[in-house]
Amino acid sequence: MALTRNFKQTVVERVERDPQFATALLDEAATLFLSGEPETARLILRDLVNATIGFEQLAEVTEKPSKSLHRMLSPKGNPSMDNLAAIFGAVRHWLKVAFEVHTIKAA
Q: What is the mean pLDDT of each run of 10 residues along the chain (107 residues)?
């Protein structure tokens, strides 16, 4: 049997080693939300929270229970826009990055 690594642990280690990877994950999560793929975006954001700020500190910053945040970022989660903005804002602040939005015309 081949050895496998836990995906979540791999993400944590990569974020610790390469801060630009964390920024790329945040960018990808935002892009997916805006492109109509919220399920995948929530899962990426959940992994990013686990690898950076953590759910307990996110709960303090957003003033939302940790369990609620876990549910919001689950595959079946349904966070409100206010909660989603708070989560993105907290992670963005933790990573010390700003969002820059660009639009392109659809073909």
A: 67 85 94 92 94 95 96 92 95 91 78
Q: Which amino acid belongs to residue 74?
A: S
Cα atoms found within 13 Å of the Cα of residue 17, Cβ hemisphere only: 6
Cα gap 32→27, rounded to integer Å: 9
Cα–Cα dist 7/58, whole Å: 21
3-state secondary structure of 63: coil
Query: How many CB atoms within 10 Å of residue 76?
Result: 7
Residues 62, 23 contacting (CB under 8 angstroms): no
Largest interatomic CA distance in the chain = 49
CA atoms within 13 A on the CB side of 107: 0
And the tokens for 75? 């595959």
Find tokens 């950076």 and name the residue: 52
